[in-house]
From TrEMBL:
Keyword Disulfide bond: no
Domain GHMP kinase N-terminal: start-end pairs: 90-177
Annotated protein name in UniProt: Galactokinase
The entry's keywords: ATP-binding, Carbohydrate metabolism, Cytoplasm, Galactose metabolism, Kinase, Magnesium, Metal-binding, Nucleotide-binding, Transferase
ATP-binding is among the record's keywords: yes
A GO cellular component annotation in the UniProt record: cytosol
One Gene Ontology MF term: ATP binding
Protein's organism: Mucilaginibacter achroorhodeus
Known pathway: Carbohydrate metabolism; galactose metabolism
Length: 389
């Protein structure tokens, strides 16, 4: 891969790239729509991601090219930038904008991006682009940011420059991911535990519904607001900062404070999902994939019925998974409204699972999904650090 990308860079820029970086995408194993509610999530880095090849130039311009998109840009070095339309290079420009506003000294770069994450699938292609750009700039210009500071900066890009009210999970997972580990992350304190994720004979199947999901245009921000409404209602009696500051038992005692039925459902999902993450970490520690799978199904049911961020496409995948004895558990992953589902599938049965879920889904939905098998991989780094050859 590195050789092919280097050839492409030379063809486009007439010179060799001096550095190659890689940042993975992520799936969230369990704990959905929790990150902006101050609770626990359990993401892991996957082996698909974003490659970035760079070389400095003396022209004081940033050149952005991609092997995935036709749009390219040449942007002069300046003190600040603004988002332009919906083009992919808003993400790296947003990172550069934050470096500049923080007083970091940069110079022009020729940059080539290539990603093998399906765009709009909910596997965090945007966080992958942001973090790989931030990591590369930090390395190239000795900016002095810690890994956690790069995560926070990348989240700020998403929130303030791009305009999506995401929590910190995606950027954290792709920066701190570890091979064969899930990250049990407290989104409030940012403390995390790397949980051994020995999948045994199972593999992580990623099923892309091929229904694109434009996060900024979806109801994501609406859900964030509904959670804030629920929090304010509970704060009439409870001294809490986030919904996830309480457990299910406490929530049930105080839920009468939330008058709106829809807002009540949203809060119930958040509190119960936070408790499921704790149980899921225990199940992985005990190597109990049966219990972990049960929790995956329960998570999906809650996202479908209480949080209402699933849909026919994601539900169809999980519906099929429940009929297959080689599947331990399945659920939608990511923000929803399309995107991907994940399933724990017996490794020897993966090919058969893949064929059958494609047929089942196509018959129900009218077009085919894409099915991938992934390992749990490392977070952002230079290509050799992040991806083992």
């Amino acid at each position: 891969m590195k050789g092919q990308l280097q050839e492409a860079f030379t063809e486009l820029y007439g010179k060799q790239a001096v550095d190659t970086f890689f940042c993975p995408g992520r799936v969230n194993l369990i704990g959905e729509h929790i990150d902006y509610n101050g609770g626990l999530v359990m993401p892991c880095a996957i082996t698909f991601g974003t490659y970035l090849l760079v070389t400095p130039n003396d022209d004081n311009v940033f050149r952005f090219k991609s092997l995935n998109f036709n749009e390219q840009a040449e942007v002069p070095l300046q003190s600040s930038y603004q988002k332009t339309g919906e083009t992919w290079y808003n993400y790296p420009i947003g990172v550069i904008d934050h470096f500049q506003k923080n007083g970091k000294r940069l110079q022009g770069l020729d940059m080539l991006f290539y990603g093998d994450i399906p765009i709009g699938s909910g596997l965090s292609s945007s966080a992958s682009i942001e973090v790989v750009t931030a990591f590369a700039l930090n390395q190239l210009f000795n900016a002095g940011y810690s890994r956690l500071e790069l995560v926070k900066l990348s989240q700020a890009v998403e929130n303030k420059f791009i305009g999506v009210s995401c929590g910190i999970m995606d950027q954290f997972a792709v920066a701190f991911g570890e091979e064969n580990k899930a990250l049990k992350l407290d989104c409030n304190s940012l403390e995390y535990e790397a949980v051994d994720s020995n999948l045994g004979n199972y593999v992580l199947a990623i099923i892309n519904t091929n229904k694109p999901r434009k996060l900024a245009e979806s109801k994501y921000n609406e859900r964030v607001q509904e959670c804030q409404t629920a929090l304010k209602a509970l704060q009439q009696q409870l001294d809490i900062t986030y919904l996830c500051d309480i457990d299910t038992e406490t929530f049930n005692k105080c839920k009468n404070l939330i008058e709106d039925e829809t807002v009540l459902k949203r809060a119930q999902h958040v509190v119960e999902e936070n408790d499921r993450v704790k149980l899921a970490a225990e199940a992985l520690n005990d190597n109990d994939l049966t219990e972990f799978g049960r929790l995956m199904y329960a998570s999906h049911d809650s996202l479908r019925d209480l949080y209402e961020v699933s849909g026919k496409e994601l539900d169809t995948v999980v519906e099929y998974a429940k009929t297959n004895p080689d599947v331990a558990g399945a659920r939608m992953t990511g923000a929803g409204f399309g995107g991907c589902a994940i399933a724990l599938v017996e490794g020897s049965a993966f090919e058969q699972f893949s064929k059958e879920v494609i047929v089942y889904y196509t018959n129900k939905v009218g077009y085919a999904p894409a099915v991938y098998s992934s390992l749990i991989g490392n977070g952002v780094g230079t290509l050799n650090e992040a991806v083992k050859s």
